[in-house]
Design brief:
alpha+beta; Rossmann fold; 354 residues; D-amino Acid Aminotransferase, Chain A, domain 1; six-stranded antiparallel sheet; 3 domains
């Protein structure tokens, strides 16, 4: 019998997307074929402490993203990563040195310090394969300003925006003159719509800036795009395998917020495949794979667009560690493209080893 591949599934983290990460991890471990894989769950709590377990019961309340957590009493606490990463390779206790035997790490740590290149840099020091973008691609795509500048340089359309480094840099009146009467304010380096506000007046603008600057030192003020929200999934490394069929998000609230994505199951309707002219669909899918390469992605990415009534489109953002919850678009798009959830995980692991 061939040796099983040991997967180190890293989840949790200190970002605002801690709970979503745990739900994603639960779904991933449940789908991994235990005939082929041995799965270790490496959970990071909100204080940055690391815990090692191998029992799915380690994660609890997994069907409610507001309540999900992990049981520290079922795990081995790992030494502080920042003190000595090498200590984690010979973790003592119940699991001996199993962490050293991990063949492929699978980080599903959404947000800051998990998706921005920080964790990826740590894994680079270990010298073992890991799923998803490397340090460069992770850092680029986490920074919406850098991403937009790269895409603009390669003639991929993005929304008009202003980058702010302090809240007094751009008045509401000047923002309206440059970008239009309806605006979005968002932290530059946060994921999943965290800290994002739609604003229409000076009072909302001031409140939105305060909220965004509490999350990041760089803040974007963007024009509000009127159009359909279209998403595309991409797989591959230096030469992307393909782009998935397109899906459409139909928000049932004002916009596709964090709550609509992960908490409120009635917050949006997912239409897969999206009803789009085949020629336009081809152009969007081509733009998705081009953007994947331009921003140094590897493994996977979900690329989000707005499609206007005149069939022009703009690229909104690139997510290098998309959600794997039951209502997440990334795996749903691949399922509609003929790649099942467990086959998708196999392919991601193959790409990491490649």
């Amino acid at each position: 019998m061939p040796k099983k591949t040991t997967i180190g599934l890293i989840c949790g983290g200190t970002s605002g997307e801690h709970e979503v990460s745990l739900v994603s991890a639960y779904n991933i471990q449940a789908a991994l074929d235990r005939e082929k894989y041995k799965v270790l769950i490496i959970a990071i709590d909100k204080n940055g402490d690391w815990y090692l377990g191998d029992d799915p019961e380690f994660l609890e309340d997994v069907h409610d993203v507001r309540q999900v957590t992990f049981k520290k009493n079922m795990a081995t606490a790992l030494p502080k990563v920042e003190r000595s990463f090498s200590e984690n390779l010979t973790a003592t206790g119940k699991y001996g040195n199993e962490l050293a035997e991990v063949d492929v790490f699978f980080p599903i740590t959404h947000g800051k310090k998990g998706e921005d290149g920080s964790l990826q840099g740590l894994l680079e020091l270990l010298g073992k394969p890991y799923v998803g973008a490397d340090v460069y691609g992770s850092a680029i795509c986490m920074d919406k300003d850098v991403t937009k500048r790269l895409l603009q340089h390669h003639s991929i359309p993005v929304s008009k925006y202003k980058l702010l480094r302090n809240p007094d840099e751009l008045s509401f009146e000047d923002a309206v003159k440059e970008l239009g009467s309806k605006l979005f304010v968002k932290p530059c380096r946060e994921g999943s719509s965290l800290g994002v506000s739609k604003v229409r007046n000076a009072g909302e603008y001031r409140a939105a800036l305060q909220q965004a600057f509490s999350a990041d030192r760089k803040v974007l003020v963007e024009e509000a795009i009127s159009g359909r929200e279209i998403e595309c999934s991409v797989l591959g490394n230096d030469f992307p395998d393909s782009a998935s069929v397109l899906g459409e998000i139909v928000p049932l609230r004002e916009f596709y917020s964090y709550e609509a994505k992960y908490v409120d199951h009635d917050g949006a309707e997912l239409v897969i495949p999206a009803e789009i002219d085949p020629q336009i669909s081809h152009k969007i899918r081509k733009a998705a794979t081009d953007a994947f390469l331009i921003t140094e992605c590897r493994g996977m990415a979900r690329v989000d667009f707005f499609l206007r009534d005149d069939n022009t489109f703009i690229l909104n953002e690139i997510n290098t560690l998309p959600g794997f919850t039951k209502i997440s678009m990334f795996p749903k798009l691949w399922e509609a493209s003929g790649l099942s959830y467990d086959e998708l995980l196999d392919r991601l692991i193959e790409l990491a080893l490649e």
